Amino acid sequence: MKKFFTLIFPKMTKYKKQNKEKTAFTLAEILITITIIGIVAILVIPALVTNYQNRAWSTAATVFERKLTEAIKSMNSQETLSGYTTTEDFVNELTKYLKINKICKSDNITSCFENKVLWGAENEEIDITTIKNASNFGQNDWDTETVGIQLANGTTGIIAYNPNCTQDPYNNQFNGLDCIAILYDTSGSKKPNESGKDLRSINVNSLGRSCAANINGICFGSLFIPEAISDEECETIKDDLGMTMCDTMGRDYWGGAVKACGGKANLPSKQQMIEIAKYLYNTDNIVSNVPSENLVLDIEKASKLGLTPLTNGQELKIWLNREASSIGFGGNMADLVRFGLNDFNPNNTASRSIGGYYAMCIIP
Q1: Same-domain status, 50 and 199
Q2: Is the preceding peptide bond at 268 cis, omega within 30 degrees of 0?
């Protein structure tokens, strides 16, 4: 067949042979090409791997928090969410709604969780054996122990329960996440065990005495959404916590932030939040009297501080330590700062009776 083809198309065969000879690469050209490909791979592959890992960690965190929220909502609807005096009792009930393979008490918590983790903007190494009760999460008034858990999908966690939490089985919007504080690791014992990456948290205001951010020598804890306090509770504690008034609507979220941080002085000032904004946006071009635009939020720093990933149009407001003397719509007022993905506004005031705003404690 080959001879037949050669006889019929002799010129074409010759042309192909000639063409092969003309287009062949030299050994030097091949070596140069391989070298270039190797250099490009060295430069590009680590970034691709990092991006892939970050997406994988974020996806795993989203899935875990969705399942946890669904479990707590189910407990709420079944009226099994509140009424526990210990975290262990709560977790034993939680196993009916969430696939938990192993539970570890606080004195043996590293049987469920990695011994050490990196926490906060400074990647401070935290000894997990010291995380024994809710106060190690910054929840000083819960007075409950921590419990370690391992889930069926490999996620590990440390939970503290809030014995003062309430349930509302007839409210479909009630998520009940204020009933717990949890530190969780989507990759289990695998590295890096670092906050903002595989290590995430809900309602963990601080870890031991670790700082989510250390700005100008001041230790700031992670962001959290405070619970409201009643007018009666506010009147009882306001003098001790440095508050001058209570909210007129009977539900004081700013007062709840003051209580959680142990006093008004432990909430940040506007100037301190401006310094944090400079840190998060990687710029010094922020002043106290006007909003700043065309900024770029450092997502890695923001994640370590507890800011949820923001998209265009989303905003996150944080209570400050100043009570406004005027009364606005919905009750007494307090100052806030506003973070966006590409902008920052240090001049905001809101009714203390409005929930959903964040707080941040200064850790002594």
Answers
A1: yes
A2: no
The tally of domains found in the chain comes to: 2
CB contact set of 236 (below 8 Å; sequence gap of 6+): none
Gap between the Cα atoms of 353 and 30, Å rounded: 71
pTM score of the predicted model: 0.53
What would the pLDDT profile of 65-91 be if each residue is shown by its tens digit? 999 999 999 999 999 999 999 999 999
Specify if 70 maps to a domain: yes
> Are residues 203 and 235 both part of a single domain?
no
SS3 content of the chain, % helix, strand, coil (to 5): 40, 25, 40
Domain extent for 300:
229-351
Under DSSP, the state recorded for 318 is E
pLDDT, one tens digit per residue, over 112-160 is 999 999 988 778 888 898 898 888 898 878 889 999 999 988 999 999 9
Query: Which residues, at least 6 apart from 318, have a Cβ–Cβ distance to it below 8 Å?
Result: 223, 268, 273, 336, 337, 338, 339, 357, 358, 359, 360
Pairing of strands 315-328, 331-340: antiparallel
- Tokens for 165, please give them: 């939490």
Q: Let me know whether 51 and 154 are in one domain.
A: yes
- Cα–Cα–Cα angle for 138, 144, 149, rounded to 5 degrees: 90
